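SUBJECT: protein chain
CONTENTS: sequence, C-alpha cells:
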Amino acid sequence: MHKVFLDDVLLPYAPSLIKMQIKNKNETVDLINEGEVNQLKRPGLTQIEFKFELPYQRYPFVVNFKPQKFFLEHLEKLKVSKRPFQFIVVRERGFGTNMKVSLEDYTIEEAASNALDITVSVKLKQYVDYGLKTIALPGTTTKNTTKTTKAVASPTSARTGAPKREGEGLYTVKKGDCLWAIAQRYYGNGALWKKIYNANKALIAPRNKGKRVAYYTIYVGQVLRIPPK
C-alpha cells in the first residue's frame, strides 16, 4: 500500500490516481537555411494533481484516521504559510517520490451520495530553492586592480538533493525536512527513516507527546544523530 505525506502529515489513505506532469521548456524556431529546429532549454517545474478522501468515520482501510477538520486546517496552513513543503509518496515496491513543492490551490467537494465523507482535489507545483550568489566582474584596472560584484540568482543544491551535513553523524533540521527525506539523502532509501527516529527517539518523542501530530514529527533547529547505514 502506498503512503502519501503532505509535509509531515500522512493522508488517511493513498489517492487512487496521482497525475505528475513533467514539463520542459524547449522552444521550436525556424532558421532561414536550416528549417525547423528545437532549442533545448532548462527543464520546467513538475505539476502534480490528485484527489483524496477525508472519511467521516474509521473504515478498515484507513491508515491515519483523524477528524476531517485536522486535515482541512493543515491544508489551509500550507496555503497561507508562503513556504514550500515536502510531497512524499512511499511505495512498497518500485520508485519513491520526495519533492519539495508549493500548494497552488485545492477544492473541497461534498456530495450527498458520498455520505459524510469529503473529497479534496489538490494541485501542487515543484519548488526549487534559489538565492543570491556574488560573482566578481572585471573592473577598471589601474595601479591597483579593482573588482566589482554583481548579485545573480542561482539555484541551490536542492535541485540535486545533496545533503548538508553539520559534522560527522549530525544533521540540523531545516524548514521542509522530514525523516523520510533525511534518510533518502543519507542512505539513498527513505524507507530507512525509522533508523534515524530510533536513534533520536528521546529527542523527538517528548516534543510530540500530547500533540495532534505524527509521532515522528521533527522541528527546525533539532540536531539529529545519523547512525551508520
User: Anything to note?
Assistant: The CA atoms of residues 50 and 56 lie 20 Å apart. Confidence is low (pLDDT under 50) at residues 145-167. The two ends are 25 Å apart (CA to CA).
